[in-house]
Design brief:
alpha/beta, Nitrilase/N-carbamoyl-D-aminoacid amidohydrolase, 6 helices, 6-stranded mixed β-sheet, 315 residues, globular, 18 strands
Length: 315
């Protein structure tokens, strides 16, 4: 496993916090995936990471490429094996770990979730993915119920953080609601790549859009954004997904301050500056200038030509 370390600007003490992202390829052996992830967390902590995020559904290959009821056997409860292992490690190392899991809430009820484990080993809370895709080879609606815990912000020992998951990253409303609760950084554990057969220009456009939308969240909200993706090819020879890696962190200006490779397991460590957060929000005070009195229509699914503002106000 290679190491990528980025220092966006010198910072120390309470004016900074260290972010670590673990990018890895997954195999059928869930124990092996857990072991690799735990070793990578140790590497990240040794290089100064204080808040370390694993990728979406890190214990297994991305099983949502097909609809198969046997895959429900992969789910685990919270607390469970993954959170217990990460809790013990978080306490040993004194770090926060974000642990994405396939959550078994009850028989027939499952979520795509992320557990935040504090530096004392305590579970600080859970975020359940809100936006659930149903696209070719991303058949998540078969497996996951939409989240019902809201957009959660966690007060950790090192920073105030938000967690959103993969498809959530395309929705500016979600990032805004995280920022409005005072988050300094939002993490996006992710599983995204190109489908077999897609041409290079199409894939390049998708990767660019994926990065651009998240950079825009950082700019519009004046926060750090950290996206951690899986890597490697998963699926059979006829069809599958080439996960493109390229996990990255961008600062409140939208500048990418650290990124992982496209093809290898990586540990990315970045130092985040609170001084930069303060400076950027002073210079670009988007939160100050929001016209919240004009945004009521955004709660509608779509505004067709027959809709009027008075109709919307009446509900």
């Amino acid at each position: 496993m290679s190491i990528v370390v980025s220092e966006p600007r010198p910072a120390s003490g309470s004016n900074s916090f260290g972010v670590g992202l673990v990018q890895m390829r997954c195999v059928e052996d869930s124990k092996r995936n857990l072991d690799v992830a735990l070793k990578a967390v140790r590497v990240a902590a040794s290089r100064g990471a204080q808040i370390i995020c694993l990728q979406e559904l890190f214990r297994t290959p991305y099983f949502c490429q097909s609809e198969n009821i046997r895959h429900f056997d992969l789910a685990e409860e919270i607390p469970g094996n993954s959170t217990e292992a990460c809790s013990a490690l978080a306490k040993e190392l004194g770090v926060v770990i974000i642990v994405p899991v396939f959550e078994r809430r009850a028989s027939g009820l499952y979520h795509n979730s992320a557990v935040v484990v504090g530096a004392t080993g305590d579970l600080l809370g859970v975020y359940r993915k809100q936006h659930i895709p149903d696209d070719p080879q991303y058949f998540e609606k078969f497996y996951f119920a939409p989240g019902d815990l809201g957009y959660v912000v966690f007060e950790t020992e090192f920073a105030r953080i938000g967690v959103l998951i993969c498809w959530d990253q395309w929705y500016p409303e979600a990032a805004r609601l995280i920022a409005l609760q005072g988050a300094e950084v939002v993490f996006y554990p992710t599983a995204i790549g190109g489908l077999k057969g897609e041409n290079d220009p199409e894939l390049a456009a998708q990767r660019s859009a994926w990065r651009t939308i998240q950079q825009s969240h950082a700019i519009a909200n004046g926060i750090y954004v950290a996206a951690v993706n899986r890597v490697g090819y998963e699926g059979d020879e006829r069809k599958g997904i080439q996960f493109w890696g390229e996990s990255f962190v961008c600062d409140p200006r939208g500048q990418v301050v650290g990124e992982a490779t496209r093809s290898d397991d990586d540990v990315l460590v970045v130092s985040c500056s609170r001084e930069l957060l303060e400076e950027q929000r002073r210079n670009w005070p988007f939160l100050r200038d929001r016209r919240i009195d004009t945004y009521a229509p955004i709660t509608r699914r779509f505004l067709d030509e027959n809709s009027t503002v008075s109709d919307i106000k009446r509900g």
